[in-house]
Design goal:
Layout (H helix, E strand, L loop, with lengths): L2 H6 L7 H12 L6 E7 L4 E7 L2 H7 L4 E7 L8 H19 L7 E6 L9 H8 L4 H6 L11 E7 L1 H4 L3 H12 L3 E10 L8 E5 L18 H4 L2 E12 H16 L7 H7 L8 E2 L4 H20 L8 H4 L2
Enzyme class: hydrolase
GO molecular function: metalloendopeptidase activity
EC number: 3.4.24.78
Length: about 325
């Protein structure tokens, strides 16, 4: 699959790692202005993509910034010890991005529609996060050391509220004045293998719905007035991508040649406006496990003085 097909189908890649893989595969060389680092662990691989200038931004289709991708197929397994390791890895990467004094107020935003399971990751994470801002204001005696003032919000989606999500968040930001926003959202992946096995951190904010062609107002430093860290997990892939991959594999196995299949694929997907998405049948379990990992990593990064065993005391 190449970038021409993605452009014809109007597909935007949510994962910076996938964008780099496609572009680098076409050119056969590293992209100028893009730098990459790798870290390996027993149950995960971490890839850090740095987009360093505007030229690289144009080529990658991603804003200048740092994109950390944690690839952990073990997330799909019922292995609590491995999940704990992935949580700790994610927490360490998140700590590096936060870089704020402990007294700084942080707002956690769970993006998505809680009524649609593949899009419910953000609200599920918010349900499991340890919020403490009210305790700092009303019950400081209940707090232990090593805790940070954290508030959380699951604003829903435009179809549920009639209000742009960015407008709701901006109103809360104006009242609570956080030093940082952490936004969690479901993403779309090019590769089905990355569904619920890959977690991306980005210090550039997020454009909700961009991966499925449903672009909403951006949630970033420019629109919010404060720094935004985005955490995303692919929960769907596009049917057009699966169709293109299947055609390419068939042509390769038969030794034929592949022409421009985008028109045929568009025709097949026409009843769905060309934006049919696919998610695994076990998505309920995958969302629950992934939300647990992300919430755990946020709790560790936000409140280093609290052990996981003590979280239940503060969760209500």
């Amino acid at each position: 699959m190449d970038s021409k097909f993605l452009n014809k189908m109007g597909i935007t890649l949510d994962l910076a790692l996938e964008a780099r893989e496609i572009i680098r595969g076409e050119t056969g060389q590293e992209i100028p202005g893009v730098r990459m680092d790798r870290e390996s662990y027993d149950n995960a691989n971490v890839t850090i993509v740095h987009i360093e200038d505007e030229a690289a931004q144009t080529i990658m289709g991603k804003p200048v910034g740092t994109y950390v991708t944690v690839e952990a197929p073990v997330i799909k397994q019922n292995n609590q010890q491995a999940h704990k390791e992935v949580t700790e890895i994610l927490a360490e990467q998140l700590k590096k991005m936060i870089d704020l004094p402990m007294e700084s107020n942080v707002l956690i935003v769970g993006l998505g529609n809680w009524n649609a399971t593949p899009d419910a990751l953000g609200p599920r994470v918010v349900d499991k996060c340890l919020v403490t801002r009210h305790l700092f204001n009303y019950a400081p005696q209940e707090l232990q050391g090593g805790m940070r003032p954290v508030s959380a919000l699951a604003p829903g989606v435009l179809g549920l509220t009639g209000i742009e999500t960015a407008e709701i968040i901006r109103g809360v930001v104006e009242k609570t004045r956080p030093a940082l926003i952490i936004a969690i959202d479901s993403l779309a992946a090019r590769s089905v293998e990355r569904i619920s096995t890959t977690i991306q951190l980005a210090d550039t904010g997020i454009n909700p719905g961009s991966g499925i062609g449903n672009k909403r107002a951006g949630i970033n430093q420019e629109t919010m007035g404060v720094r935004v860290i985005a955490i995303g997990v692919p929960t769907v892939t596009l049917a057009a991508v699966i169709a293109q991959d299947a055609i390419e594999k068939y042509i390769q196995s038969t030794g034929g040649q592949l022409g421009d299949a985008s028109l045929a694929i568009k025709k097949v997907l026409e009843p769905f406006g060309g934006n049919l998405t696919v998610t695994p049948k076990e998505i309920d379990t995958l969302i629950e496990d992934t939300a647990q990992i992300i919430a755990g990593s946020i709790n560790m990064a936000m409140h280093p003085g609290i052990s996981p065993q003590d979280y239940a005391y503060y969760l209500h």
